[in-house]
Structures are given as structure tokens and as C-alpha cells.
Amino acid sequence: MSEIFFYALSAIAIACSLLMLFQRNAMYSVLYLLVCFFAVAGLYIMLNAQFLAVVHIIVYAGAIMVLFLYVLMFLNLNTPAAFTKTNFLRMAAIMTGGSLFLLLFASFYKSELVEMPMPVTNTTGDVQTLGKVLFNEFLIPFELTSVLFLSAMVGVIIMNKKDKANG
Amino acid sequence: MSQNTLNIITLLIPALPLLGFFIHIFFKNKISEKLAGIHASMWVALSFVLSLVLFNQLQSVEVIHVQLCNWFSVGGLTIPFAFQIDHLSIVMMMVITGVGSLIHVYSIGYMHGDEGFNRFFSYLNLFIFFMLTLVMANNYILMFVGWEGVGLCSYLLIGFWYKNQEYNKAANKAFIMNRIGDLAMLFGLFLLFQYAGTLTFDGVNESVSRIVPDENMLTAITILLFIGACGKSAQLPLYTWLPDAMAGPTPVSALIHAATMVTAGIYMIVRSNLLFSLAPFTLEIIMVVGIVTAIFAGSIALKQNDIKKVLAYSTVSQLGLMFFAIGVGAYEAAMFHLITHAFFKALLFLSAGSVIHGLGGEQDIRKMGGLDKRMKITHWVFGFGVLAIMAVPPFSGFFSKDSILIAAYHISPVLWVIGLFAGLLTAYYMMRVYAVVFRGDERMSAEVSKHIHESPRVITTPLIVLTVLAIFGGLLNIPHLFGGNKMMMHYLSPVVPMDEKHMAMNTEIMLMIIASVAIFLTIYFAHLKYKIKKTVPEADAQITGFGKVLNHKYYIDELYNAIVVKPLNMFGNFLYKIIDLQVIDGFVNGTARFSAYCSSQLKNIQTGAVSFYLFAMALGMVGILLLIILM
Amino acid sequence: MDNTGALSEQMRAIPLENFIMLSLILFSIGVMGILMRRNLIVVFLSIELMLNSINLMAAAFSSYHNDPQGQAFVFFIMVVAAAEVAVGLAMLVMIYRNTKSIDINSLDKLKW
């Protein structure tokens, strides 16, 4: 039963990402990726990473993709632009990606992964467990992320201020 | 006198001329001419006085050793900065500083008005310093320092009037020929160190008497040292620089190329007499080279028309006689002749300088004549000098040359005859010069004739002093025959072993008489030709036959030019045009061009397009992963 | 909470390798996207896809090894991705303002 779910969700994810690549319209690409993210969120749920799945949807689908759409519509960029470079370069890109995949696959294949099924009582993914880890071992990085966001915000604002001289 | 005072005096003797040199460096042309000349001469005169003091002290002490410091110590070789004053070196020191100070005084008058006046005296002082180092050193290496130093000063002084390119070439020639000899000498010193294990004179002498002599090694060492002496003392085949060195001012010719530098070779060999005595083959070679040079140079002098060139070839010839004396084993005879030669040759050169000065620069004897009435003092001093060099009794030259001939007779009467022949040549060409320059009709231009004047006292006074020395110098070493007791030979005996061969009184007197008669006959013939018949040497275009060969110095210079100079120039040219310009520059420039080419190709990576950079990144990632997987 | 046991039992059928494969495929697709497209937006999206694939792999490992640290790491990756998107899009807006195009090669003055 869960296998069906798994294969379906992964098929959706892969298909959507491929579709995202080959769209002329940027808006369609964003939407396809959105669907892909939902599929990944589903996979998270299958892994019993509940908190992560929800946060994934909120942050990625709800914030980041929306941000993309904002920028697209704000700048009126949804006119279909020229697709890509020459065919040769397209081939080269595909081959590079493909070779990278082959390499990673080869290294993965050679590695000796211990047969490990999922444990029965899997409590990772619970909010409590995750919270405990975050606030005990990863406390400082956790606090630093707030600083990170602050600096990102400040940077964005400063970047886009209109220069007084240029106007 | 305490050892300390002796040390100080010994160190002062070379230090004072060096001080004179440094004063020039710091004050250059800010001192007036008169001051420069006086202070330079003063230092040398002071050195002379101090040498006399040491000479006095040496009556009681046998040797004075003064060590300044240890110069370097490498492997088994220890070379100190140390001076050794023994009987041999004190004799040389007195000659150097004595004749040197007279020449300094003379130069004050001779170089008057020259724009390089101060520089001249600084070079002279530097030369005296190096020459003193040479004779005062207690080891071969310090002596070699002095050896090179006098070569340097010779170069500086020959090319003193550096604006003339010919003079510069002459200076180059002198220096380069000296270097050839120096190279041989260095090899000899290397071998000597390997043989004896030390290079101090005392050490070498001691080890030579201790070790069983290896004749081949000693022969090699001594031959190499002799070649060095040939370069410095202008023997065949390294003599051609000396006549060309007459390009320098006359005091230079007198000091360096008559009295002191050229005698350095003789000094070195006499100092190493122990080595040479153990290598009889080398002594034979020295003897042959010496006498051949003497006759060769003497014959060239017969047909030279420049007064200084005649004297130059005469110097070469007399040096040949000194080497001849060494070759027959009479070291102290060679030293004796060295001293008397210093006196009368310096005298001859300086009076020739006086003539040149009086005639406003004329040096060709065909344009002189009748100067006996116009320049009286110069005429008298030159005359005495000529009498001395011709070995007319009882002047100094007679005693010194005679001691050489007698020693040669001990080896073989044939050698005596050959030596006498060299002496006859000397008599002939000196008489020729005297008669043509000072007697006969005046042949100079009217312009010059108006300005002839006797030289000032600052020039003539040293000449007179030297004349006295030339006349009475023979008193140094009068043989037993005349009641003397061979003072100098006895004096030098601690350093040079005495070799008093006894000869029957009758033989000795007979030989002397034959020699003197032969010389008088030669003088008479020359007198006949040049004074009575008033023959004047022909103009250059009219010389014919063997005389032409002699006038052109046997074409030796041309020979050297063709054999040595031209091939070297061609070789140098080849190295320059092909190897330096094409190969090395090509290689270096090619490397630069290659790297520039590589970078010009590599710069195309910077396309500015981000997509290309991303591509490169991805490819790099793939590459690294590949490497990691494959390793 | 009760269902976790049932879920885990069912999940035992899916080996870890599957998740890793999926992650690798998504990552390679992301790389292809970067190299292939000229539209800046799509490039950013491909970068997000790559980050997501890594997130997935980390979460999978953490679940299968029962170690919550993997998921905490995913958390932080998400944080960084969010900040990066914000800054990146701001830059995109600036580029558009200056060159009126969002071609990835529009700014190419910094070449030799």
C-alpha cells in the first residue's frame, strides 16, 4: 500500500520537475514546481516527518513560490521568452546533468549501505522530539538564523532603495 | 728596540702610502697640485726612512715577523695577514721606497699642469702600497694579492691618459698578458699547497726540506710559477705588453716598468729559491728563456726609433739577463743586477722624460740631436746612466753584469760568450741612442728648438741622486778580486744559500778584461757610426732587409694578433651573436612569449556570461567527483 | 500517535535506497535546469529543486536511523533557502530595473 503511494508521489515529483524545465512560460514553471513541492511534502509525511512536512508547505509553497509569483507578476515577466540556447548547448547541458547523475549513482551503487528498514517506533519527526533537538543541541544555530533573516531583510531593503542622486 | 715598536714600524711602512691613496679618495681635487704632490711624496719618503730604521734593526734581529690577523682558514689552509721582514725583503723595500720617493718628487715637476695630477699621485701611492705588500708578505697568497695589485696599478697608470683609445688598448694588453701569467701562477700555488700543505714561505721551505722531493711535482710547480714570473717580468713569450706600456707617462715607465713591478717575478723566484734549486730542469728552462729573451729584445732595440721604446726593450733584455742569472744558480747576482738596474734604468727613463719634457713631447730620436749643449744636466746624467748600463768599469753595471757572467762561466764557457754577446748588444744600442739624441746636429723643427729648456730643479735633483747611485752602486757587492768582500751576497745568505764557487784569480781577471775590451770595441764602432759619421737612422719608409724585421719587432705583435687575438674576437663574436642573442635571448624571450600566449588563450575563459560559469562549475564538480571515485 | 506503528510497519517495505535514488534524480534534474535555461526565474527554481532533493535525502536518513538531528538540519537548510530566495529575487528586481531583461547573460561586462 505504501509502496503505491511512494511510487506515485515520486513519479509526480519527477514528472513535474521535468515539466518545469521545459516550459516556455515562467509562470507555468513556478506552478509545476509548486505541485512538485506538494509531492515532496507528501513524501515527508510518509517518512513520519510531520512537522517538517507542514513547515515545508508553509515556507516553500506558501512563501517562496508566492514570492516568485509576486516578482513575476510585478515585473510582468510572464511573456514567453526565448527558450534556450542552441541545441548543442542543450545537449551538452543534458549530458552534464546526466553524467553527474551517473557518477552519483555509481558512487551510491558502490557504497555498502546497511540494510536498514524503518524502525517500528519511529518517534523522529514528532514535534516534541524535533523541538528538544533544536533547543538543546542546535540552540545557537537556531538563534543565529534569526540574525540571518535580519541581515537578509536589511540587505534586500538597502539593495532596492532608490538612489537619491539617480532618483 | 722593543718588539712592539718594530711591529708598529713594520705596519706603518705600507700603511703610509695607502693613507696617501685614501686622502686622495676623500679630497679628490680639492687639494692644490703642490700639496698633493708633496704629501704623496712625503708618505713614500717616510716609508723609506722607516725602512732604513728597520734595516738598522735587522743587524741584531735576523727576521721580524708581524702578524696583523688571520685572513682565512679553510680546510688545511691557513693564510694570515702577516709580514715577514728578512734580509731579502728589506733590500727590496729600500729600493722600492727609495727609488719610488725620488720618482714621486720627479713627477711633481713632470706632471705639472696635467688635469689628472692628483689622480696620478694617488695611483702612484697605491702602487707603492701594493708593491710593499708583495715584498713584505710572509705567504704566497698575500704576495699574490700584492702581485695582482701592482698589475692593477700598472693598468691604471698605463692608461692614465684615458681619453686616448690607443693608450687604453695598451693598458688592456698589459693587464691581460699579466693575467695569463697569473693564471699559471695560481695553478702553481694550488699544486704547491697540495705538495707542501701550507703556503707560508717558512712553512714551504720547512716542508720541502722535510719531505722526500718529488721531482716531477716540483718541476711542474716551478715551471708554473716561472710562467707567472714571465707574465709579470715580460719574458718571452709574454713580453709584448712592456713596449706598448710606454704609452703611460714617463715616471710610470721608470717606476713600474724598470725599477719595481717587473722585478716582482725575480723576487718571487729568489724567494722560492729552495723550490727551484730542487728542480734543475726548470732552472735550465729559465736560463734558456732568459738569455734568448735578452738577445731577442736587444736585437729589436738596435732598430727602434722611439727613445722610450729603446729603453723598454732594453728593460726586457736586462730582465732576461737576470733570469739568466737565476738559471745558472746565481740568485744573489740576479738580485744585485736587479738593484743596479733599478738605479740606472730609472735614471735613463727619467732623463729621457726630461728630454721629452724639454722638447715639448717629441719622442722620435730622429728628430732630436745636439742636445748636449742645450740641456746640460740632462746630458750628463743620461751619459752616466748609459755608461752604467753598458757595463763600463767601474760603474755599477759593470760589477753586476760581471757577477752574472762569472757565474755563467762556472757552468760553461759557451754561456759566458752568449751572455757577453747580450751585453755587447746593450752597449751598441745604448751608444746609438746617446749619440743620436745628444750629439750631432740639431734635427728638430725650429718651433721646438726655440722652446728647449733645461728641466726645473724638481726634475733634475732626483736625476742627480740616481746618478750617484748608478755610479757607486757597485760598491754593494764588490768581488774579492778587488778587495771587497761581497757584502750583498753575505747579507742575503740567510735567505739565499751562498754558492761561492771559487775561481782562480787569473781566470777571473782575464774574463773581466776580455769582456771590457769587447765592450769598448763595440762602443767604439757605435761611436764611429753614429757620432763621427753622424749617421741618422733612416725614415721608416727607407728601412730595408733584416733591419726592417727588427724595426717591426720580428712581427711578433702581428703574429699574436693573428693567432690569439683574432680567433678570440671571432669566438667572442660568435658567442655574442649566436649564443647570446639567438639562443639565450631566444629562450628567455620565448618563455615570456609562450606564457603571454598561454594567458592570451586562457583569458577567453572570462566570457562574462554567467551561464558559462555555471557550466564550468558543473563540469568541475563532475571532474572532481570522477577523480574521487577513481582514486 | 498510535498510527505511527502501523505506518512504520508499512514503510518497512520501502528500502532507503529508493529515497536516495529519488533524491539523486531530482538533484540531477536541478543541475540540468541550471545549465539549460536562460531565464533567471527558472534558474532560481532549479536551485530550489536541488535544495529540496537534499532536504528529502536528509529527512529520509534521519527517519531510517531514528536520529532527529537530520531533520533539524533540514530545518536549517530551509531557513537558508528562504533567505537566499529573498535576497536573490531582490537582486533579480534590480537587474531587471537596470537591463530590462532577465536573461542570465544580460550582465556580461565583466569579461576580458
Task: Provide a brief overview of the structure.
The complex is a heterotrimer of chains A (167), B (631) and C (112). With 631 residues, chain B is mostly helical.
Topology:
The complex is a heterotrimer of chains A (167), B (631) and C (112).
Chain A: H1 2-21, H2 26-46, H3 50-74, H4 87-110, H5 127-136, H6 139-159
Helix pairs in contact in A: 1-2, 2-3
Chain B: H1 3-27, H2 33-57, E1 64-74, E2 77-85, H3 87-110, H4 117-136, H5 140-158, H6 165-196, H7 201-210, H8 215-233, H9 241-244, H10 250-259, H11 264-271, H12 273-277, H13 280-301, H14 307-327, H15 331-358, H16 371-374, H17 376-389, H18 396-411, H19 413-438, H20 446-451, H21 457-472, H22 487-491, H23 505-532, H24 545-551, H25 556-602, H26 610-630
Antiparallel strand pairs in B: 1-2
Chain C: H1 3-11, H2 16-36, H3 40-65, H4 69-99
Helix pairs in contact in C: 2-3, 3-4
What does it look like?
- The complex is a heterotrimer of chains A (167), B (631) and C (112).
- With 167 residues, chain A is mostly helical.
- Chain A has helices at 2-21, 26-46, 50-74, 87-110, 127-136, 139-159.
- Chain A contains six helices and no strands.
- In chain A, helix 1 runs antiparallel to helix 2 and helix 2 (26-46) packs antiparallel against helix 3.
- Chain A is globular.
- Chain B contains 26 helices and two strands.
- Chain C is 78% helix and 0% strand.
- The model of chain C has no long low-confidence stretch (mean pLDDT 86).
- In chain C, helix 2 packs antiparallel against helix 3 and helix 3 packs antiparallel against helix 4 (69-99).
- Chain C has a single domain (3-99), classed as Helix Hairpins (Orthogonal Bundle).
- Classes of the chains: A mainly alpha (167), B mainly alpha (631), C mainly alpha (112).
- Chains in contact: A-B, A-C, B-C.
- The B-C interface holds B 603-604, 606-611, 614-615, 618 and C 31, 34-35, 38, 43, 104-105, 107-112.
Strand portion of chain B: under 5%
What is the general shape of chain C? elongated
> What fraction of the residues of chain C are assigned to beta strands by DSSP?
under 5%
Write down the Rg of chain B: 30 Å
Span from first to last CA of chain C? 62 Å
Chain-averaged pLDDT of chain B: 84
Multimer state: heterotrimer
**pLDDT below 50 for ≥5 consecutive residues: which ranges of chain B?**
none
